[in-house]
Amino acid sequence: MALTATRRGERLLAWGLLLPCLAAVCAFAFWPIVYSFVLSLHRIVLGLPGLGEPFIGLGNYARLLADPTARSSAAVTLVFVAVSTLLEVALGTLMALALDKSFRGRGLVRAAVLVPWAIPTVVASQMWRFILNDRYGLLNWLLFGDQVASYRAWLAEPGWALAAIISADVWKTSAFAALIVLAGLQTIPREINEAAALDGAGPWQRFRHLTLPLVLPALAVALVFRTMDAFRVFDLVFVMTQGGPANATNVLQFYGYKKMFAEGFMGYGSAVSVMVFVMVLAVSLLYLRLVGRRLLRGEER
Amino acid sequence: MRRGHLIAALAAGGFCLLALAPFAWLVLTSFKTQLEVTAIPPTPWPGGSLEFYRSALSRYGLMHFVLNSLIVAGGTTACTLCLGVGAAYALARLRMPGRPWLMGALLLVSMFPQISLAGPIWRMLQAAGWLNPYQGLIIPYVTLTLPLAVWILTSYFSELPRELEEAAMLDGCGRLGALVRVILPLAGPGVFTAAILVFIYAWNEFFFALLIMTRRAVQTLPVGIALFQGQFTMPWGEIAAASTVATAPLVALVFIFQRRIVSGLSAGAVKG
Predict the structure, then answer these.
(1) Which of B108, B112, B80 is nearest to B208 (CA)?
(2) Pick from A122, A221, A276: which is nearest to B226 by CB?
């Protein structure tokens, strides 16, 4: 009797402790997702409250499908996400392999490669914008020295601008991928590697047949986290290119922001934001299918 | 074996250079003079002038932005930890039905694209009259940092032996008393780790700060730095100075607490 009473008390306490956290998350994360879908079914123009907010059904979505900028925006986003994520995980793996070895000053090295991760993205964006500057930029100077005539305006050329945004993102976030892979590497017992080396396996063979399969779950986690985060790219675009030149870097998060808050089309912008959400959801379901099962099976072993 | 270590050390050195050199360039720029910054080709080494720091302070109101960032990041850290400690304790220790579901739902929140939350949050804050007051920014930050904090804290709490609280409860502490007097002090490092990561997030966040803080007087550092505009030219020197001020505390945090940050980030990510 006393036992069930403490159990009930415990459960009550548990919900009491959880409630504020759940309330915050429901009110400011789950509800907004629903609410943004509701908003996307209305015509809402922020500057013109006199128009009211009429319900227009799927009107915003019909416009979205016919909007060439939205389409190119979606394509730019997918290119950005795919290229930057792959580069980050690849580079992160190399970093993790280097950091996994023991050498003097490893702690300092680990801190140093974490610096880009800690720098505010806005600062990193201004920094790259300055380095890529067409007149006093470091890159032009390193490449062309005193030959000012060959200096290029990197951020004014569509291809280079997108490459610049991707590079800045890779510079900033590879260390995060590296940390996750490193945590995975450190769960592998050293003896396995040493035994294989004694049996005559070369470094590449050991990496390919021993390390890689064992670290695959960590790689998958890094890939998922980086992908979801890459969909959110905004600061780099806002500071470095404002979506230009010619929409070459106009990622969806920036396009949605521009429609909603710069131009005031809250309804149409919400339709864009719902599209982003659906894309992220689709990608995460895809990942779940591809790696989720393998991860679960790995855990059972 | 030896050669492997040498290659690793060389590669690590290369990664360090790539990571630090671009930012070092910005720091060098902050100590130059206007003439040195706009020289073509650039002057690599600064004369050591504080001109840009002075002008960032006096003409661009740098101290204002720093103060706002401290208030918002500090407030966020305090609120997130208060809510997060309770939630994590409940998830780690008390018999909870549906615990994996709750942890999964929190993880889901950390994956939401901000743009999908922006419109609704903006409208809710506008209706409450909370666009610009600090709590208007702190509330979304708390929501978005809670998942990370709860994940880290849960993993730290789960590692503490249950016997400790049982002993405390036998000695007459209630559950809550055991949490506050026994568990929290022991989980101190975990709480501290969560605090560092939440603080860094709130200090660096730009998207919501841009939307919600429209008045200059309440804007945070990232918004200030993104919107620095000169009358005729880009004030690169002042931007570099403000960036150095905004980043110096973070670099210090990273070098002092590297171990904690690494373990916190992997607790949040890998144990999922």
Answers:
(1) B112
(2) A122
